[in-house]
Amino acid sequence: MLQPVLLALVGLTALASCSKPGPGGPRIAVPAYFQAGPPWRALNEAAPAVGIAIVNPSNGTGATPEPGLVQAVGEARASGLVVLGYVATGYGRRPVADVVAEIDRYRQWYDVGGVFLDEASSSCTDLAYYSTVSDQARAGGGPFTIVLNPGNQTAECFMGVADVIVTFEDDHDAYLRRYRAPDWAADYPAPRFWHLIYGTPTVPQMQRAVQLARSRGAGWVYVTPESLPNPWGRLPAEPFWKAQIAAVQKRGA
Known about the structure:
The chain is α/β, with parallel strands linked by helices. The protein has a single domain (4-249), classed as TIM Barrel (Alpha-Beta Barrel), CATH 3.20.20.80. 36% of the residues lie in helices and 18% in strands. An eight-stranded parallel β-barrel has the order 1-2-3-4-5-6-7-8, surrounded by eight helices. α2 (38-45) runs parallel beside α3 (67-78), α4 runs parallel beside α5 and α7 (203-215) runs parallel beside α8. The longest helix has 15 residues, at 96-110. 43% of the residues are buried.
């Protein structure tokens, strides 16, 4: 059996296979918690600046596949995006068998290229749980990207389990004022980290957030003006969306 670090490298090949964006980086990774239609087409048209999308039919797969989303995911993958299935883990308390069964449904119904494990624990005491989920998820064969979302800074122990870790999920004000990266994060390349920033009202604020993500070593970012309770339920309207694509493609900081 492959060791966790090697398993993570296998998943990273799926991300590396995506086309490269402009020289500035980071790339956009979108929680696409919306139905099939124009927003999914906008993601495809924005590739390769957009490289990841999360499909989330009903806080998970739901009871049956949605034909429109099946088609949308297929088109996204054809455009070069890595599509991840959304799976909640209950901070390491949801039974592993249930988590793995839902991952299997995403594979069978939507042919996803990875999984977004939400409500992830940030404590190394739960490392065995996530190692087991990761191993079983990858056992399906082929490159399969594992993303953990604790939504905040986490312990380095999880870097051997996940290909990407979401180390920030909060509003714009928190990103400006309260973000702190642990010292160990500097030892890893930017594509291992993803920042999700909501409640960002204006284009200049979004541009500043993208600049900060770049300087803070995040290889993946998504900024939206939407706010709680569900900031991921729609794609930003224009001119915000196209300005975000331009911001990630801008050279330098």
